[in-house]
């Protein structure tokens, strides 16, 4: 089973006020926690999906980059995932992580991978507090056709994809910190200590 890692780092961070993937936690940028959780599980390649405005801020030579072209409208995670997946030719699965999740761990990544072995599901997605967490999941290459179909009809909602593929959900307890997503500066003030 060949797995590639995809870190989504092209969002506008409009609620945060600046690119939050470059916020620092324990001397590392937020996005580096996602990169390292993948790398510690020998996932290769690890690809950062970002945009033309942000690419110059990344300081990693051990990852690959997929750069989205700037458009007038926000493309969203479904487009970013499709854009990254379609550039990686030698992977069966893609492990997707957001870039603003500084509490993600390599143990979480390993546990998710263990659930993908020998399965016929199209995606393995965590469920936290009764909420699906699609930016912490594994996606099989076979869904590229469905992604392309949705994008061709200008349907960019990830929920539409998830409702149209065969997914396995993995439940996590409500007090699991891995899924803390930092949306506002005040969120980070609450969690960083």
From TrEMBL:
- Record's keyword annotation contains Cell division: no
Annotated binding of GTP, by residue: 8-10, 20, 100
Sorted alphabetically, the Gene Ontology cellular component annotations on this record are: cytoplasm
Q: Name one GO molecular function term.
A: metal ion binding
A single BP term in Gene Ontology: Mo-molybdopterin cofactor biosynthetic process
Q: What class of enzyme is it?
A: transferase
Does the keyword Transmembrane belong to this entry?
Answer: no
UniProt keyword terms in alphabetical order? Cytoplasm, GTP-binding, Magnesium, Metal-binding, Molybdenum cofactor biosynthesis, Nucleotide-binding, Nucleotidyltransferase, Transferase
Q: What Pfam families does UniProt report for this protein, alphabetically?
A: NTP_transf_3
User: Which cofactors?
Assistant: Mg(2+)
Task: Give the HAMAP family listed for this entry.
Answer: MobA
Q: What does this protein do?
A: Transfers a GMP moiety from GTP to Mo-molybdopterin (Mo-MPT) cofactor (Moco or molybdenum cofactor) to form Mo-molybdopterin guanine dinucleotide (Mo-MGD) cofactor.
Name of the protein? Probable molybdenum cofactor guanylyltransferase
Q: What is the lineage of its organism?
A: Bacteria, Bacillati, Bacillota, Bacilli, Bacillales
- UniProt lists the gene as mobA
């Amino acid at each position: 089973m060949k797995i590639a890692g995809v870190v989504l780092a092209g969002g506008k961070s409009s609620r945060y006020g600046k690119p939050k993937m470059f916020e620092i936690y324990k001397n590392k940028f937020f996005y580096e926690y996602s990169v390292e959780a993948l790398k510690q599980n020998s996932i290769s390649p690890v690809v950062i999906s970002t945009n033309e405005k942000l690419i110059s801020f990344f300081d990693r030579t051990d990852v690959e980059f997929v750069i989205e072209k700037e458009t007038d409208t926000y493309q969203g995670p479904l487009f970013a995932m499709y854009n990254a997946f379609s550039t990686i030719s030698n992977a069966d699965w893609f492990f997707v992580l957001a870039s603003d999740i500084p509490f993600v761990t390599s143990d979480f990544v390993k546990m998710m991978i263990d659930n993908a072995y020998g399965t016929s599901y199209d995606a393995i997605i965590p469920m936290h507090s009764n909420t699906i967490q699609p930016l912490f999941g594994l996606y099989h290459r076979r869904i590229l056709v469905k992604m392309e179909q949705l994008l061709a009809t200008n349907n960019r909602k990830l929920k539409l994809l998830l409702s149209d593929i065969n997914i396995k959900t993995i439940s996590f307890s409500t007090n699991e910190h891995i899924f803390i997503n930092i949306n506002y500066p005040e969120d980070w003030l609450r969690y960083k200590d």
